[in-house]
Amino acid sequence: MITTSDFREGLLIEDDKGNILEILHYQHHRKSAARAVVRVKFRNMNTGAVVEDSFRPEDKFKDVDVEKHPLSYMYTDGGKAVFMNNESYEQIEIALDRLGSSAKFLVENEEVEGLYINGNFFNILLPAKVELTVVDTVPGVKGDSVSNMTKPAVLSGGLELKVPLFINQGDKIRVDTRTSEYVERA
Questions:
Q1: What is the pLDDT of residues 135-157, one digit of tens each?
Q2: Whole-angstrom Cα distance, residue 156 to residue 104?
Q3: Considering the domain 129-185, what is its CATH architecture?
Q4: Rounded to whole angstroms, how far apart are CA atoms 121 and 123?
Q5: Among candidates 153, 152, 151, 148, which has minimal Cα distance to 171?
C-alpha cells in the first residue's frame, strides 16, 4: 500500500474505483489551525482526464505493478494505431481515442515505451521530445518584428502550434510532448 508521503510525480496508483491514476503534481498543504492535506493533480490513464483532489496524510492507495517495454510505432489502420514489441515482435493495436493527444506525436518507426500494468498492455509513453515536419504555415516576413514573434503551423501528425517566423513549410522541428510547444529546429 502507498501513502501520501510516498507520492512523487509520475507515480501510478489505483484508486478505490479501479482507475489507474498518474500523479502529475502534488503539494502538502496545511493552514495554521486546520488539518494537513495533500493536494494532488492526477491524469486518469483510462480516460486521459486531468483531475484534482485532496487527501489526508493517512490515506492509503493500491500500488500498481508497472512494466515498460520498447515498442515501435508502425502505422495507423482506421481508428487504431499499430505498434510492434521490439522484444517479442508481437503486433499490438490500440484505439487512437485511447491515446488521446499522444496520437498527434506519432511518427512511423518512432520508438516509444509500452506501459504494461499488471501484465496487460495499457498505453504508451512518448519520449520527451519528438521530431515532426511542418506541413503548413504562412511565410514569415523579415523585419516584421521587434522581439520574438510566432506564427501558427500545422505539423505532420495534425498538431497545431506556434513556431518562430524563420520556420518554413517542410522544415523538421523538435516538439516537447509534455507541453506541445516548439523547442528547436532539427
A1: 999 887 666 555 678 889 999 88
A2: 8
A3: Beta Barrel (2.40)
A4: 6
A5: 153
Residue 100: strand pairing partners: none
161 near 105, Cβ under 8 Å? no
**How do strand 172-176 and strand 181-185 relate by DSSP bridges?**
antiparallel
Q: What are phi and psi of 105, to 5 degrees?
A: -100, 0
pTM of the model: 0.70
Beta strand residue intervals within the chain, DSSP E: 2-3, 12-14, 20-29, 37-44, 50-55, 60-63, 66-77, 80-85, 91-95, 111-117, 120-125, 129-137, 150-155, 160-164, 172-176, 181-185
Task: Please state, in angstroms and rounded to a whole number, the distance separating the CA atoms of residues 165 and 139.
Answer: 8
Q: Which CATH number does the domain 2-63 belong to among 3.30.360.10, 3.40.50.1980, 2.30.30.30, 3.20.20.80?
A: 2.30.30.30
